């Protein structure tokens, strides 16, 4: 925005100079205005001297001759009728007519320009006796249009641009702070209320942003508090029913009741964990992302699972995030890959502008294209061969992918699923985490 404002101002200054230059060029003025007035005065004096008796006039005109002007009295004008006219000639003729009360046919003017600075100005004036005063003068010419612009453009533009740049920076400082804070909030961070400074419009936007963030914080806290209360209230009847189920004599009915109650307990606890959204409470800090991935792989290997890591570069990869939250998303994706695809292969790729991509591949059957988005919904499971009780034993209630997407999006990233084509590896499912720089 600052560059646009300064560019518009610069464009306005250039346009102003262009308009002024067009007026000058259209005017056609070539003799400096002060020098033109002097030329008129000299010619008028010469005419008055030439109006004296002829002998006296010749002596006076000879005495007035110098290196810059020559005056002569003769029977005719040394300028032809068809001499070229212009703004300067017309202006000189008008002044002489007014000053000497001469008719237009008693004045002849010719301007011959040699270069940008030198020219010959010839003025012929008819005296009352019918003779002609012929003058040759060398006026001071106006500078070429580029010469004044070399001075006027920098002098009029640079100070204005410096002052405007300083003020624009001051005006846009709160806007930049607001943009930075909004970017942090999009990553799930908590930011302090921004100071309300700057122009009235910037203060209004900052106030609205602070109010929005406060309302968002209260909403999340109220939702978490409400779900916590619901979870707490449900635990008591679930526990009571569990105790009563122990008193059932029928072993099959007793086992079914206990299994259902255990399922309810796990669902309540997992739902509460999902609603709390750890991204809101964990502090953001800089970590080594490659080390975090290695840690996830080592924990999976310790459990006897087939998990591998591939990275496009070696060394540390600093990244600001909430490591526990991001690790939770990665663990959920690896758990799914191992559970339904036998093995998991992790890859860390860096893209243009510092963007990061984490891929988790498995060798499973994949997912139908029309179901790739549905699996992110809470409590949705697409494997009909698995009973709910079997998945409960593995801690799966259909929230793993929903939690993983929530964690990734809280970092300003994106989680997507896609089926691999099977060219490099056997066909399977690929989970892709895209993280901003």
TrEMBL record:
Catalytic activity: ATP + protein L-histidine = ADP + protein N-phospho-L-histidine
Membrane topology according to the record: Multi-pass membrane protein
SUPFAM superfamilies (alphabetical): ATPase domain of HSP90 chaperone/DNA topoisomerase II/histidine kinase, HAMP domain-like, Homodimeric domain of signal transducing histidine kinase
Localization, UniProt: Cell inner membrane
Segments traversing the membrane: 151-168
All residue ranges annotated as the Histidine kinase domain in the record: 229-437
Keywords: ATP-binding, Cell inner membrane, Cell membrane, Kinase, Membrane, Nucleotide-binding, Phosphoprotein, Transferase, Transmembrane, Transmembrane helix, Two-component regulatory system
Main location: membrane
Any Pfam family hit: HAMP
E.C. no: 2.7.13.3
Alphabetized Gene3D superfamilies for the sequence: 1.10.287.130, HAMP domain in histidine kinase (1.10.8.500), Histidine kinase-like ATPase, C-terminal domain (3.30.565.10)
Keyword Oxidoreductase: no
Record InterPro entries: 2C_sensor_his_kinase, HAMP_dom, HATPase_C_sf, HATPase_dom, His_kinase_dom, HisK_dim/P_dom, HisK_dim/P_sf, Sig_transdc_His_kin-like_C
Sequence ranges assigned to domain HAMP in this UniProt record: 169-221
Protein name listed in UniProt: histidine kinase
Organismal lineage: Bacteria, Pseudomonadati, Pseudomonadota, Betaproteobacteria, Burkholderiales
């Amino acid at each position: 925005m600052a560059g646009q404002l300064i560019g518009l101002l610069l464009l306005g200054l250039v346009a102003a100079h262009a308009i002024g230059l067009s007026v000058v060029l259209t005017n056609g003025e070539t003799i400096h205005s002060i020098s033109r007035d002097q030329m008129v005065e000299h010619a008028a004096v010469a005419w008055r001297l030439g109006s004296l008796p002829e002998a006296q006039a010749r002596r006076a005109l000879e005495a007035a001759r110098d290196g810059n002007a020559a005056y002569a009295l003769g029977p005719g004008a040394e300028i032809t009728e068809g001499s070229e006219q212009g703004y300067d000639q017309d202006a000189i003729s008008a002044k002489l007519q007014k000053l000497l009360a001469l008719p237009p046919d008693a004045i002849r003017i010719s301007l011959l320009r040699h270069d940008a600075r030198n020219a010959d100005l010839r003025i012929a004036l008819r005296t009352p006796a019918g003779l002609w005063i012929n003058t040759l003068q060398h006026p001071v010419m106006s500078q070429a249009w580029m010469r004044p612009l070399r001075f006027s453009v920098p002098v009029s533009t640079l100070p204005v641009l410096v002052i405007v740049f300083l003020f624009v920076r001051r005006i846009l400082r709160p806007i930049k702070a607001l943009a930075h804070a909004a970017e942090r909030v999009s990553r799930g961070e908590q930011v302090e209320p921004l100071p309300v400074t700057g122009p009235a419009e910037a203060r209004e936007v900052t106030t609205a942003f602070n109010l929005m963030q406060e309302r968002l914080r209260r909403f999340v806290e109220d939702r978490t508090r409400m779900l916590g209360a619901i979870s707490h209230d449900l635990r008591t009847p679930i526990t009571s029913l569990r105790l009563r189920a122990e008193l059932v004599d029928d072993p099959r009915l007793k086992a079914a009741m206990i299994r259902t109650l255990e399922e309810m307990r796990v669902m309540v606890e997992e739902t509460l964990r999902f609603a709390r959204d750890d991204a809101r409470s964990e502090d953001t800090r800089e970590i080594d992302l490659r080390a975090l991935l290695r840690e996830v792989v080592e924990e999976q290997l310790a459990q006897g699972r087939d998990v591998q890591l591939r990275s496009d570069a070696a060394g540390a990869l600093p990244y600001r995030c909430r490591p526990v939250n991001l690790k939770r998303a990665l663990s959920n994706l690896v758990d799914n890959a191992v559970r339904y695809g036998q093995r998991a292969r992790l890859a860390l790729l860096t893209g243009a502008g510092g963007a990061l991509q984490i891929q988790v591949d498995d060798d499973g059957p994949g997912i139908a294209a029309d179901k790739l988005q549905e699996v992110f919904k809470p409590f949705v499971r697409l494997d009909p061969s698995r009973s709910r009780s079997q998945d409960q034993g593995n801690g799966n209630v259909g929230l793993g992918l929903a939690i993983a997407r929530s964690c990734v999006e809280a970092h300003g990233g994106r989680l997507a699923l896609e089926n691999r084509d099977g060219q490099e590896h056997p066909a399977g499912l690929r989970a892709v985490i895209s993280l901003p720089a």
